[in-house]
Amino acid sequence: MPEGVEIDWVNSSASLEESAEALQNTKAIILGGALAFDLELAAKCPELRLIQTTSAGTNQLDKAALGELGIKVSNNGGGNAVAVAEHTIALMIGVYRKLQLQFKSVQDGKWMSNIRDEWFSQAHELTGKTVGIIGVGRIGSRVAKRLQGWECGLIYHDVVDPDSELVSDLCMEKVGLDELLATSDIITLHVPLNRNTRGMISDREFDLMKPTAILINACRGPVVDEDAFIRAIEQDKIMAAGVDVLEIEPTPEDNPLIDMDNVLITPHLAAFTQEASEKSRAFATYNTAKVVHGGDPDSVVLPDD
């Protein structure tokens, strides 16, 4: 524990009055997971200067309203970036090899007898594919770095220009969004959820993709218009998809995506590894300690981010 820092645990189910009393002298709060923080409660915390999340996403927090109260929001500083990058590549391979069908066939005692022909028709190698990365931040850049070992062609689109040395080292080419969608074998999303990215992949974008393309989403579900996503799969606009996130979580049992053989879904666990948890907790402790001692926090997320 950093010197001069005292940590108290506050029950997230406590009443507004109980929480406000417990947080009267608190300068920084660490929120576990994707918990939200009530604005009415924030207004009752006169000393509060920082809300620190252990997650990368902060879309559950009204950063503009909190800013008006003098409260900044910081995310986990990339503590889970490696975990999500590895999971992203696992989804790519899982989709290309239809691993969910292979697992089920073995579990059903049928070995390869009932899936071989269907599986083979869509089985592909990752090596040599053109991968379009939308968002080259902490996670997207790590995905790119790992894909170099698979000799993939890397193109990217980002509204913020990444470090030029990074782009050069990873042999990435910047292209417009439409070109990326039209030419990529794999399209992988690594953007925050905000008013600019909500629904950024919809019918128009799916229409631009190659019928052999696969979509990977390990950022936030609402970045993809789910109705358009379902139509794209049903109408063979794209070949397949691998996602760790959906528009509504937990997703309803009647979501048609669940039963589609060419859609691989994991339950929003890409960021959860022992190592990622340790790094995220360490950063949260370090960052809140800076604020307690009068410093400015790192990894501050702006209202539009």
Entry summary:
Helices cover 35% and strands 13% of the residues.
* Strand arrangement across the biggest beta sheet: 6-5-4-7-8-9-10
Based on CA atoms alone, the radius of gyration comes out at 21 Å
Number of helices: 12
| Tally of domains | 2
InterPro entries: D-isomer_2-hydroxyacid_DH, D-isomer_2_OHA_DH_cat_dom, D-isomer_DH_CS, D-isomer_DH_CS1, D-isomer_DH_NAD-bd, NAD(P)-bd_dom_sf
GO molecular function: glyoxylate reductase (NADPH) activity; hydroxypyruvate reductase [NAD(P)H] activity; NAD binding
Domain D-isomer specific 2-hydroxyacid dehydrogenase NAD-binding: 89-270
Keywords: NAD, Oxidoreductase
Task: Give a written overview of the molecule.
- One of its GO terms (molecular function) is hydroxypyruvate reductase [NAD(P)H] activity.
- InterPro entries: D-isomer_2-hydroxyacid_DH, D-isomer_2_OHA_DH_cat_dom, D-isomer_DH_CS, D-isomer_DH_CS1, D-isomer_DH_NAD-bd, NAD(P)-bd_dom_sf.
- Residues 89-270 form the D-isomer specific 2-hydroxyacid dehydrogenase NAD-binding domain.
- Keywords: NAD, Oxidoreductase.
- With 305 residues, the chain is of the alpha/beta class.
- The protein has two domains: 16-79 and 273-292, Rossmann fold, CATH 3.40.50.720; 81-265, NAD(P)-binding Rossmann-like Domain (Rossmann fold, 3-Layer(aba) Sandwich), CATH 3.40.50.
- Helices cover 35% and strands 13% of the residues.
- The protein contains twelve helices and ten strands.
- The chain has helices at 16-22, 39-43, 63-68, 81-96, 99-107, 116-121, 138-147, 164-169, 177-183, 203-208, 226-234, 274-292; strands at residues 28-31, 50-53, 72-74, 130-134, 153-157, 172-174, 186-189, 214-217, 240-243, 263-265.
- It has a seven-stranded parallel β-sheet, with helices on both faces.
- Helix 10 links the parallel strand 7 (186-189) and strand 8.
- Helix 4 (81-96) packs across helix 7 (138-147).
- It starts with 15 loop residues before the first helix and ends in a 13-residue tail after the last helix.
- The model has no long low-confidence stretch (mean pLDDT 94).
